Queue: 2 jobs
Job 1
Amino acid sequence: MRRLIVTADYFQRKCKKRDEKFIADLRAFLKDDMHFPEKHIGRIIVLLRECLNKRNAQVAESTKHEIRKRARNNNKACYMCGGELEFDIGDSYNSVQVEHKWPKAMGGSSDNFNLEVACQKCNCKKSDYIDASDFHYEKICLVSDKKDEHFSTEMKREYELALWAKTEFKCSVCRKSPADAGKLKFARKNSNDSWHFLNIEIYCEKHHEIRG
Ligand SMILES: [Zn+2]
Ligand SMILES: [Zn+2]
């Protein structure tokens, strides 16, 4: 899906205002490179254009204000790391930010259901988390060391986000979010294997402990 959106974006930028050329290039890509059946291509093009339009939509200041206010009243934590949020205007690592759960750049809606409060630290690292699942996959493999006991606690926030995103920011056992269960932790599925993306599972504190 990411490949479709990114490629559609590329063709659109390349063809600038020439809409017909954009559609022709996109159609050829869907047919010749992606091998979609002819009968579905028209519909896919419609959806991709919708995605590209969404990214230009701005969240109204009043909507952001409303979401921040509600989060403050409910003492909400960052939905990604579970960290406490700083609600007063400021620029610290945990300053509250209203962010798109499914990124705007990937066609994420600017409607309420897709907006959530996050700390600045998570939000500014999240821009590439969608790519992260494959991009950071390689990186985690490269830096991983089987014998390193501290590996899971010393991970960079962008790796943490990529891993948390695997389970949609929830414990893989009880599906609790970090806002309810605290910062999510990591454990290896197979302890003889190294700390790499596919061998790392995501747990809440309780299930991390049970696992031992
Ligand atoms: Zn956070
Ligand atoms: Zn759990």
Note: The radius of gyration is 20 Å.
Job 2
Amino acid sequence: MSKAELIEMAKHNLVHTKAGTIDQAPSVGRIPVEHYYDPERWQLEIRQVFKRLPLMLAMTAELKNPGDYKAMEAVGVPVLINRNKDGEVQAFINSCSHRGAQIMEEGRGNTHRFTCPYHAWTYNTDGDLIGVLAKEDFGEFDMSCNGLTKLPAVERAGLIWVTLDPNSTLDTDLFLSGYDAMLEHFGFKDWHFFESRTVAGPNWKIAYDGYLDLYHLPILHKDTFGSQMPNRALYNAWGPHQRASSPDPRLLETENEPEETWDVDTMMSGVWTIFPHISIAGFDGGGRSVMISQLFPGDAPGESFTVQNYLMQNEPNEEQAKAAHEQFLFLEHVVRDEDYATGLKQQKAMKTGANTHVMFGRNEGGGQNFHAWLDKLLTATDDELPGLFGLQKR
Ligand code: FES
Ligand SMILES: [Fe+2]
């Protein structure tokens, strides 16, 4: 089913590749500059988007075995994600039911018991409270009601979505709008987690706009990788999730072969974003690889941080690991010193009042779409959410 969709996209790409055209949005879009720095709007984004919708917080490759866990902070919420002894992924707020201490230090590891560093209360991999120090002294209470607070967690396509609201009833599959079936074509569940790091950046939307934008590639990145890159993009959307790809002459090579033999990896080119804050881009440093970037708002509207993760299709040998490491260092340089350095200056200039709006051209439909979804979600009630997702597939 989704391979058929991939073939349809490749055919559409071929039409544009041959004609030298792209799809265009109906008109030039305008976004008020305050949307990038207004503190109230920024708070609303955190509440209505980041703390309400499923976020892709971890990758299967980080948590392959029972007992594997990852502790992290997401928009101020300490989160503990693990794979329990039955192999299921679960997520909890990383906070002890005794007096709230964070149980696991940020990072990854493997354990079959979570022991709080404060008074050694202990939880199993399902988050059940199983040990209370000096219980006879502590006094009576119901241990079965005092496990870790569970968060909705769903594993699809080798990626793990967690909703930071423990009471959320939003169906993650509905939110994904069929996009996970497309992402399955990467086969991430069998990939190798290589490295990750964190890069500081500007307002999260200024940063995220750049991931949906191929228009800037040969200009801003002319001295690094972009001088020969196309600046034209085709956008496809599944609900709020979007893929950006360029007209791809490689597709011409197999155009006359039977469709079922068309190369899936070639058809998966481009940038696959996951609303509201993920970008997946392919590379070949050390073998087939992707950089999965997770963007998070920082402590103020003008701050964000991005966790860059490098995943490889196969576990690298020594030489491949060296090449992968170099590729990943290069990507840090490009993002920090070109994209985010530009974004930090851009947000400073936006606040001067020189422009009331920023523009997204008809060739920047991905950015237009992203901001339209954000607008919609900032005003949508919880009850309206299911109606928004799942119906928007095109
Ligand atoms: S706060 Fe965790 S055991 Fe006391
Ligand atoms: Fe860029």
Note: Residues 2-53+177-388 form a domain with the Naphthalene 1,2-dioxygenase Alpha Subunit; Chain A, domain 1 fold (CATH 3.90.380.10).
